[in-house]
Structures are given as C-alpha cells and as structure tokens.
Write a structure and sequence with these properties.
- By secondary structure, the protein is mostly beta strands.
- The protein is 0% helix and 40% strand.
- It folds into 2 domains: 151 residues, no CATH class; 138 residues, no CATH class.
- The two termini are 40 Å apart.
Length: 320
C-alpha cells in the first residue's frame, strides 16, 4: 500500500454557487471501479476488478471483444484452429487493449471477417492471460475460441490450457449497454457490469496503459479516469485561467476528443522523495456529456480522511 498521509484541506475558499464536490471510492487496494454521473453528482455503480474477464460489444453492428484492463490482461491468437493442440501460451504473442478506447486496437482484434455475408469466422484459438489479482499474483491462462455471432448472440468456447473445464457459452447482446461481460467462473457467467449508457459520464478505476521510459513503451497499471465510449468527450484546458475563472467562453469545441483516457491518470503524480501522491489542482478539464452538457472539472485530492490513497475527490460545475 502507498504511504499514508494527512488529508489536504479542500477547497481553500468558499464554494461558489453551482460548484459541486464529488468523490469516488476505489478502495485502498484499488479493487473498485466507479461509474459516475455528473448531472446528479452520483456514483451510479461500483464493480470490482474481479467481476468479469471479457467484455462483448453490444449494438446492432457491434462485434468487438475487450479484456478487463483493470487486471493487466493480455491476449493473442495462436493462428491455429486445433483447440486440443494448444496446451500452453508459449510462443503465442500477447498484447494489451489500447487504453484510448480504439476498437481497432484490441488484443483480440479481428476474430472474424464481418465484411462478408455471412461473416467468415476464423475460429482461431486464443491464449487469454487473466492478468493479476489485487495482490499482484498471476491468475493464469484460458484458451478460447470465439466461434460465431449469430442473431446477436456470441458463442464462446474456453478451457484451461490443459484442456480441463472445457465449456461453450452463449453471450447475448443486451440493450442500453456499451458492453456485456463474461466471467470464466462457474462454467461461464454473464455479468451486467456497466450502468445504462445514458446513466454515466466517467469511470474511475484501475486500467492498463502504455508508459514510456527513454522513449520505449512499456505496459503499466495506473489509476485514473476513463470516458463513457458511447459519446462522452473531454479535453485538458490549456489557458491561463484557474478553475474558478474558466467558463463557457473558454471552451473550444474543436478540442473535444472521445479518446477514452484523455483525462487519464496524469492529474496526479507520485513524489518519490516524500512517498506520497500530489494532485495537480491547476489542471482543468472540460467534459461534454452524452446530452451535450458541458462541465468544467479539476481534482482536489487522492486521499481519504484516514490518509489512504484511492479516494479521488474533485470539484466541477455545469457551464453549458
């Protein structure tokens, strides 16, 4: 666990009308992921990093499959259809999903050719690295075949790498969610892990991203904020005004981006000398919700009243 510190006082001025204080409880072990709706200043749903393994895209044209990025999961195709012949992940190149939310940059990738009619299903065997638990222990591997998507129902076969616990499950799409989850537990369990699309704007929690050391990328688990990929957009304000001064006239609509991790994790940094996190309260973000409302937001703290990390607090106001 990160070093405990005394809570910073916040804010240091009388709160003007219309400004709200929000918070999210990730837990001191970062095991929670919190879906938040700005208009109601409410955490609408909290899940844990262990709730699901894979996420399947809903929507009439949806077919993409995501990993649970909060667990450092990886996946890769063996490029063979022989399920029994794959007994180890050895030699199979594994990759991570893009933290930016680009559905063309997923680890599972193009598991079928949906441009043909009917679709051409490759039925290649994937190695799925289940990632790490909250103590950093590896959770092992599954071998998986994404068999088909027919009548809005995914068919998925999976087993342990030694062939035991071999099951095939059906994953039907659901309405009003970006994704529906699948847990490999209990012979395959459907997990409705997201709130309804219109009920949330941002997601607080742990996720995998690429950092850089001397220009070289390396994957890392970070804790930050992701956008609702159904259409929430945001950007970091680059002007000289502070949070109280900035308003709708400072918004540049051309700057908004749907990049999922545009808010990300860099609103805080870890001070190695002091062993504590410091929040950059001067960074102001503009967020455009699905209904077109525009908010300004900045972060205040990353600690709870006991001085534990994993409890981001933020200040925001609807300005348009």
């Amino acid at each position: 666990m990160d070093k405990v510190k005394e809570e910073d006082p916040y804010p240091t001025y009388p709160i003007p009308e219309g400004i709200k204080i929000g918070s999210a409880d990730l837990g001191s072990d970062y095991s929670n992921r919190v879906y938040y709706k700005l208009s109601s200043n409410q955490a609408v749903k909290t899940i844990t990093t262990s709730d699901y393994d894979l996420a399947f895209e809903n929507g009439e044209q949806g077919w993409h499959i995501l990993l649970n990025s909060s667990r450092f999961m990886q996946a890769g195709s063996s490029e063979t259809k022989d399920f029994e012949s794959i007994t180890s992940p050895s030699g199979i190149p594994l990759t991570f999903d893009s933290s930016g939310g680009d559905l063309d940059s997923t680890a599972v990738g193009n598991w079928a050719d949906f441009s043909s009619n009917p679709p051409l299903y490759y039925k290649e065997v994937y190695a799925i690295d289940l990632g790490l638990d909250q103590q950093g222990n590896p959770l092992g591997f599954k071998k998986t075949v994404f068999e088909e998507l027919v009548d809005n129902i995914y068919s998925v076969r999976f087993a342990n790498m030694d062939g035991s616990s071999d099951f095939t499950v059906q994953v039907p799409k659901v309405d009003d969610r970006n994704f529906i989850g699948l847990s490999f537990e209990n012979e395959g369990t459907l997990i409705d892990f997201e709130p309804p699309i219109q009920d949330w704007d941002i997601l607080f929690g742990q996720y995998t991203t690429m950092l850089f050391a001397e220009g070289e990328p390396y994957p890392y688990l970070v804790r930050g904020v992701l956008l609702n990929t159904a259409g929430t957009e945001a950007y970091l304000y680059g002007g000289e005004k502070d949070f109280l001064e900035v308003d709708i006239e400072d918004v540049e609509n051309g700057q908004f981006t749907p990049q999922q991790d545009v808010i990300g994790h860099e609103w805080k940094y870890y001070n190695l000398e002091e062993g504590v996190y410091t929040v950059n309260t001067n960074q102001v973000y503009f967020i455009k919700s699905l209904d077109g409302s525009i908010y300004k937001l900045h972060f205040l703290s990353y600690y709870n009243s006991n001085g534990e990390t994993g409890y981001p607090k933020f200040e925001f106001k609807k300005i348009g």
